[in-house]
Design brief:
Strand content: 15-25%
Radius of gyration: 30 Å
Shape: elongated
Distance between the termini: 86 Å
Largest sheet: 5 strands, antiparallel
Length: 333
């Protein structure tokens, strides 16, 4: 094999080139021919080494571009006014809005899920697992919606995801066609609409439908491996693991719940999401590098929709708290 370090080969080739030029000046054509042959051999040895250097640089560049994405940990949060209440819908936290709707819709439609969430005798781990499944559903929707393309030729629907469908109650319930669900039988619902809420006369949520039908330009699969969800494509693989414990609380900024949400309980529940991106061999080719940009944009979108840290940094709560306290004191005078 040719040595990876080309410096000494280049130095030798340059030296023999200089000798060749000097021999021509001295009209030593026989010596010049000899030096030329040696130079050609060295140049021939340099070409494969240079090629190896280029490929090495390509691999390093891809690794550098995805280094910060290789393992991403995000933590989100939700707040309850009481133990049995649904997660509070916080306007500026998209994850909390979705989580509230998921539990309101599922518990209204399914007595089984309502008993798990509101039942006092239910094992806490079962309730924790329900939160994990709801969070999984949020990420499944977010990931596939971002990666899908309207003009794709490969379809991913309920028939392709049986291992996930059987282990996520929210995905199974919400993607079931409206023709098979009681909350959607009493009203007129357009079957062509891919997402819809069933509402009572008082505008309370009775059910939620969202079609599980995505199209891609490349083959895409959604599987479960142990406790991880795996989205696999010919170019990359995304692994997702959700962890939640009722004991894992998140202390909210001072007076946040009182001034912003309207109740005094000032702690929330923390949910951890672990994402790992692995590149496939096809990503060594420069014409596939645009997927790296796509993955980085995906991470940014998930951070904005889910991350508690991102939300509170953006909110900049302390000045708001001080203003709220001043207004409160003025009103109490």
């Amino acid at each position: 094999m040719y040595p990876f370090n080309t410096k000494h080969l280049r130095k030798k080739a340059d030296a023999f080139r200089a000798k060749k030029i000097e021999a021509v000046r001295q009209q030593d054509f026989e010596g010049a021919a000899y030096y030329r042959e040696v130079e050609k051999k060295l140049e021939a040895r340099l070409k494969p080494s240079v090629l190896r250097v280029k490929w090495k640089l390509i691999f390093e560049l891809v690794k550098i571009k995805l280094y910060e994405m290789n393992a991403t940990e995000l933590y989100g949060f939700f707040v309850q006014s009481s133990k049995e209440s649904f997660p509070v819908s916080i306007e500026d936290v998209y994850f909390s809005v979705c989580l509230h709707n998921y539990f309101a819709a599922s518990c209204a439609e399914s007595n089984y899920l309502a008993k798990i969430w509101k039942g006092e005798q239910v094992n806490e781990r079962i309730r924790e697992n329900l939160v994990e499944q709801a969070t999984e559903y949020f990420f499944i929707r977010s990931l596939l919606s971002f990666l899908s393309q309207s003009n794709g030729s490969f379809h991913l629907d309920r028939t392709n995801i049986k291992t996930v469908l059987n282990t996520n109650l929210f995905l199974n319930l919400f993607s079931t066609p409206t023709t098979k669900r009681k909350p959607f039988q009493n009203g007129e619902y357009d079957q062509n609409i891919k997402s819809n809420f069933a509402l009572s006369d008082e505008k309370e949520i009775l059910g939620f439908y969202e079609a599980f039908d995505y199209t891609f330009r490349y083959k895409c699969s959604l599987e479960r491996e142990n406790r991880c969800l795996v989205i696999s494509t010919p170019y990359f693989e995304i692994k997702l693991r959700i962890f939640f414990s009722m004991k894992n609380t998140l202390l909210l900024p001072l007076h946040y719940s009182e001034y912003y949400l309207g109740f005094k309980k000032n702690s929330g529940h923390r949910i951890n999401a672990y994402l790992k991106v692995s590149l496939k061999l096809r990503m060594i080719f420069p014409w596939n590098w645009h997927y790296i940009k796509t993955l980085k944009e995906l991470r940014t979108e998930l951070k904005e929709a889910f991350s508690a840290k991102h939300y509170f940094e953006k909110l900049n709560w302390e000045p708001i708290r001080i203003q709220s306290r001043i207004i409160e004191n003025l009103l109490n005078k």
